[in-house]
Amino acid sequence: MVPSSPAELVAGLLARCRFPPAGTAVTAAVSGGADSSALLVLAVEAGCVPTAVHVDHGLRPGSEREADVVASLAARLGTPFVARRAQVAPGPNLEARAREARRGVLPAGAMTGHTADDQAETVVLNLLRGAGLDGLSGMAPGPTKPLLGLRRAETSALCARLGLPTVHDPTNADLRWRRNRVRHEVLPLLDRVAERDVAAVVARSARLLHDDARLLDELAAPLDPTDAPALARVPAPLARRALRRWLRAELDPHPPDSATVERVLAVAAGTRRATEVGGGRRVARRAGRLRLEPGSKGER
């Protein structure tokens, strides 16, 4: 049934969002596209007190003018507006570098307008990278990603219904970037093969896997990840969770991949003496305890 009024449309979408309680002050990252513009609209309707922050990466000619679109939307909604400029570091993987630059100028806990379609793309990309349970769980649902229950078509429809001008980013159609190929080629092909809306299926699977991952985290929380005999006594999935938690905390910003965790498990089991874990560090076993030490060349 098509909502008969903008108010009904907004109410229907809000019922599937995960905003914090009314009255909460929040930061909304708003690029000016339909997803982030809908994010700001829905945050206001949810009773939050948002500040709209536009981040200009300076990667496209005229990108600085997009801040004007966001400023106008913020003024229409009666919310504060802040414009930021992010310096993108040189190197490979432009998308990752732009994401890091954006994080550097946004406050912790800033909301983004990621939808279920973005979630499906993320899961497929993580699958292609050989990710484990955490990667296949996609982006964690919650107040920083309140729109994960919505579809991209719905955010566009909301902006159109409210007469909101939105920014079109031409890089989203550039097939040089892997995410865009997943968006425009892989998922549409899977739709045709499966004869169904695959993005919805993948996003739903990510929600279920997220719940499984959190349960494993809770079960692994009491484990001491440096106690090698204790790790050997528990099921491997719990040992992996405990080790991953320890290594992520110690090696940030060099989180361990699955191969690294498996090598550390072998050290805990006593089948190898030590292994490199990234960040110039290695894990060794001494008197039944795992220890992080300075790395040595050639150790794997």
Which helices and strands, and how do they pair?
Blueprint lengths: L5 H9 L10 E5 L4 H12 L3 E8 L9 H12 L3 E5 L8 H12 L10 H13 L4 H4 L15 H11 L15 H17 L3 H23 L7 H6 L2 H16 L6 H12 L4 E5 L2 E6 L2 E6 L6
Keywords:
300 residues, mainly alpha, Rossmann fold, 3 domains, three-stranded parallel beta sheet, three-stranded antiparallel beta sheet, 12 helices, 6 strands, 49% helix
The top level CATH class name of the largest domain: Alpha Beta
Biggest β-sheet strands, sense, barrel:
3 strands, parallel
Low-confidence stretches: none
Question: If classified by CATH, what would the architecture of the largest domain be?
Answer: 3-Layer(aba) Sandwich
Strand content: 5-15%
Give the C-alpha Rg.
22 Å
Query: pLDDT average, as an integer?
Result: 92
Helical run tally: 12
Domain module tally:
3
The CATH topology assignment of the largest domain is: Rossmann fold
CATH homologous superfamily assignment of the largest domain: HUPs
Instruction: Write out the strand line-up for the largest beta sheet, numbering strands in chain order.
Output: 1-2-3
Cα distance spanning the termini: 59 Å
Tell how many strands the DSSP assignment holds: 6
* Order of SSEs: HEHEHEHHHHHHHHHEEE
Indicate the structural class.
mainly alpha
